[in-house]
Design a protein that fits this description.
Blueprint lengths: L6 E5 L5 H9 L4 E5 L2 H9 L5 E8 L3 E2 L3 H4 L6 E9 L3 E4 L10 E4 L1 H6 L1 H6 L3 E4 L3 H11 L4 E5 L1 H7 L2 E5 L8 E8 L11 E9 L5 H11 L4 E8 L7 E8 L5 H11 L2 E11 L2 H10 L3
Parallel strand pairs: 1-2, 1-3, 7-8, 7-9
Antiparallel strand pairs: 3-4, 3-11, 5-11, 6-9, 6-10, 12-14, 12-15, 13-14
Helix pairs in contact: 8-9
Organism: Rhodospirillum rubrum (strain ATCC 11170 / ATH 1.1.1 / DSM 467 / LMG 4362 / NCIMB 8255 / S1)
EC number: 4.2.1.51
Protein name: prephenate dehydratase
């Protein structure tokens, strides 16, 4: 049995991109694969793992389904973030040649992210539950003429050859992961921080406009704002937001106080160090 205090949970099979993120973040720790996102949350909550590393969004596919719904009720805190460059590989059994491949299986997002490659090679794309699962199944079946799109790590784990590396359409294909823990952290004062929270505004005209006004007047940079339906209704939405700064800083404290006047729910999910990728990406987008 692994030591829970030296274990990090992730959703998916070994070789998933979440597995890659977990091992890069915590190379000395054991990993705990979980069948579903809520299982990964539960593993941390129940003391089976110290952390969970979970995807929140991708630069091509957008937000990861279910995570926004699960986080507010998970009882866990965001203590960090990590950005993983996604490099898809066309994997096949040993001895296979790319000209022999006719069918490729993978997660729907991975297939979508490799659309140009798939079309150029005349492949039939079949959706699988996940990338690593497609690789594991291919290694077991060894079906001639079939391949999987997955990570290089999946290829190593399941003994598959990489017929072609970096087949994703977009070079910027990056997934952002969140590190979840039972206890909140307080980032050092000398590092830039991100605050993530969810809120619901009152169901009145211009409520969202008024609620966000405090962030503008206090000079707070909001880097993410998304809405999603709650309780099966189409008239009430919960909003998920990331802002730069920490709640104990006067400007953000004032903005959050103003937000509270227009909401009937405000839950801070975490205050954590900003990953350096944020600043590198911002610099690349700044015109000279």
């Amino acid at each position: 049995m692994s030591d829970p205090n030296q274990t990090v949970a992730f959703q998916g099979l070994p070789g998933a991109y979440s597995h890659m993120a977990a091992t890069r973040l915590f190379p000395a720790m054991d990993v705990l694969p979980c069948a579903a996102f809520d299982d990964a949350f539960a593993a941390v909550r129940e003391g089976k793992a110290l952390y969970a590393v979970l995807p929140i969004e991708n630069s091509v596919a957008g937000r990861v389904a279910d995570i926004h719904h699960l986080m507010p009720d998970s009882g866990l805190h965001i203590i960090g973030e990590y950005f993983l460059k996604v490099n898809h590989h066309l994997l096949a059994p040993e001895g296979a040649k790319i000209e022999d491949i006719r069918i490729v299986r993978s997660h729907v997002h991975a297939l979508g992210q490799c659309r140009r490659f798939i079309k150029a090679h005349g492949l039939k794309a079949i959706v699988h539950a996940d990338t690593a699962g497609a690789a594991a199944e291919l290694a077991e079946r060894k079906a001639p003429g079939e391949a999987a799109i997955a990570s290089e790590l999946a290829g190593r784990i399941y003994g598959l050859s990489s017929l072609h590396a970096n087949i994703e359409d977009e070079n910027h294909n990056t997934t952002r992961f969140l590190i979840m823990a039972r206890e909140a952290v307080q980032p050092r004062e000398d590092v830039a921080a991100v605050t993530t929270f969810v809120f619901r505004v009152r169901n009145v005209p211009a409520a969202l406009y008024k609620a966000l006004g405090g962030f503008a007047t206090n000079g707070i940079n909001m880097t993410k704002l998304e809405s999603y339906q709650v309780a099966g209704t189409f008239v009430a939405a919960r909003f998920y937001a990331d802002v730069e700064g920490r709640p104990d800083q006067p400007a953000l404290a004032r903005a959050l106080d103003e937000l509270r006047h227009f909401t009937h729910e405000l839950l801070i999910l975490g205050v954590y160090p900003a990953h350096p990728y944020r600043f590198a990406a911002r610099q690349s987008l700044t015109p000279e």
